[in-house]
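Sorry, explain these tokens?

***
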Amino acid sequence: MAQAQPLRLLAQDEADLAVLSAAAQDAVLKVGDIQFEAAARRLTLAFNRYRWEGAGRQRVRAALQIAGVLKVEARRIRRNAPDAVLQLLAITFEAGEAPGGVLTLSFAGGGDVRVEVECIEAVLADVSQPWPTPRTPEHEA
């Protein structure tokens, strides 16, 4: 059986970001897996991504890195609870002074992380082989 090809995506505009967001939808992570490096102006999230593009019912360890970060704000995220689990629903962009704006990472339960960026520059990369999962994420219609 052939090994799954790791996903590697680069988003540099809103169309790219929509593809990246779809690939990351339903990723699960812990609050402690969100790291902001202010000096490097970089935000990194490590998570278990559901492989929507695969044969189904698989997850893979992946990382999302956002560059050119000017500011990060969290709302309804328990930052003092590094083991609290989050489920990523979507990543959206609100334009500001071109080419900058705000990326919003929306999580189940209403929490979000707002990331002010110089421009859209995000990379999503799988970093492990996929493994089977018994559940397929479901959403209310």
In short: The radius of gyration is 15 Å. The first helix runs from residue 14 to 24.
